[in-house]
């Protein structure tokens, strides 16, 4: 598996990875009926550096974006969003993308990374970020309307680079 910058011709593969996450509505604050065009525009926004994780056969197994968390005085802190294809869960894709994103953020001069809204019930993600040294620095009670669990907390997670 390797991680590389996304290309224009990855649009179909990106949608194949993003759509199940969007439709499930369990981990991102995106409209569950979001269109392909809107999802790709969101993920590939001009401020986002987008990457894909591929297996040795070239299949896209996941994607992440990297951006500045804020402008101006907060631009030294990176922010990322990650999605793994459902069929690739448990194969180390998220771990590979996390490691790559930390390296890429350092190379781009970021001094810290912050995740603004980690849904607390996404325990796989929380454990992964903790294994990379992220700490929960804030908890937003009931901030996420989970489709089956109701209102659940969202976490703010942070680490220095």
Automatic annotation (TrEMBL):
Protein's organism: Salinarimonas ramus
Entry protein name: Acetyltransferase
Source domain of life: Bacteria
InterPro entries, alphabetized: Acyl_CoA_acyltransferase, GNAT_dom, Mito_N-acetyltransferase
Domain N-acetyltransferase: 1-161
Gene Ontology MF terms: acyltransferase activity, transferring groups other than amino-acyl groups
CDD domains: NAT_SF
């Amino acid at each position: 598996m390797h991680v590389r910058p996304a290309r224009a011709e990855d649009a179909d593969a990106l949608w194949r990875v993003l759509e199940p996450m969007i439709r499930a509505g369990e981990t991102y604050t995106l409209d569950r009926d979001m269109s392909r065009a809107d999802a790709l525009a969101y993920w590939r926004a001009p401020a986002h550096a987008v990457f894909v994780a591929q297996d040795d056969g070239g299949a896209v197994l996941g994607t992440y974006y990297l951006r500045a968390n804020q402008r101006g005085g907060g631009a030294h802190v990176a922010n990322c969003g990650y999605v793994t294809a459902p069929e690739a869960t448990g194969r180390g894709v998220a771990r590979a993308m996390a490691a790559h994103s930390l390296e890429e953020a350092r190379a781009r001069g970021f001094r810290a990374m912050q995740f603004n809204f980690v849904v607390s019930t996404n325990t796989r993600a929380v454990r992964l970020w903790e294994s990379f040294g992220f700490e929960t620095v804030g908890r937003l009670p009931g901030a996420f309307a989970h489709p089956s669990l109701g209102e659940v907390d969202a976490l703010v997670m942070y680490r220095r680079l």
